[in-house]
Amino acid sequence: MFVLPGKDVNSILPSTFKMASLMANGQRVNLVILVLASIYEGLNTVATSPKPAGTSHPFPIHFVYVWLACYFKTHYSVWQELRGPKMTRFSGEGGAKYYEPREARNRIHKAEFVSWACNMLVKDGPFKFVDDGHAEELDHNYFVAIRSSYLTLRQDGKFIIEP
Fold it and tell me: Which PANTHER family match (predicted)?
């Protein structure tokens, strides 16, 4: 979860172990901005390439699959009654639902199947958020998600800024 692909996909960066040890010790870390910046850079590289299918730019596409499954119900859910640890809520690549291009556009533009609850912070009245390190996890994650409109990431000796 905390490993972002770099140029050398066969090596693990030392910072990976730092994040892993922080998480193992129960410290809350927020990787949303880093993951999103990596995804945006990867998608922009593919989208602006003259040959998108021939582009070799690693980025964490599995997060995109989960986002589509969560918001647009594009994958079948995994049966959650199984005993033992569950690594995924949705089926893998082969479990994606198939849509014709027109139906896919309608799902997105009409928003009939979108789960808006994923985007909302529901409170009974006015709410003031103070970032003092004692916020509930849901509140903290929500406010991190709506922060600045720029995503930044330092990776492989370069500084990435994605609007």
Answer: 1,2-DIHYDROXY-3-KETO-5-METHYLTHIOPENTENE DIOXYGENASE 4 (PTHR36607), AMINOTRANSFERASE-LIKE PLANT MOBILE DOMAIN-CONTAINING PROTEIN (PTHR36607:SF20)
Other C-beta atoms lying within 10 Å of the C-beta of residue 42: 19
Whether 119 and 145 have beta carbons less than 8 Å apart is answered as: no
pTM > 0.85: yes or no = no
Tokens of 104: 């896919």
CA atoms within 13 A on the CB side of 107: 17
At 3, give phi and psi (nearest 5°): -100, 115
Q: Which two tokens mark 39?
A: 């995804």
| Cα–Cα distance measured from residue 37 to residue 42, given in angstroms and rounded to the nearest whole number | 9
Q: Around Cβ 69, how many Cβ atoms within 10 Å?
A: 21
User: Using one digit for the tens of pLDDT, what is the confidence trace for 50-66?
Assistant: 998 888 877 877 778 77
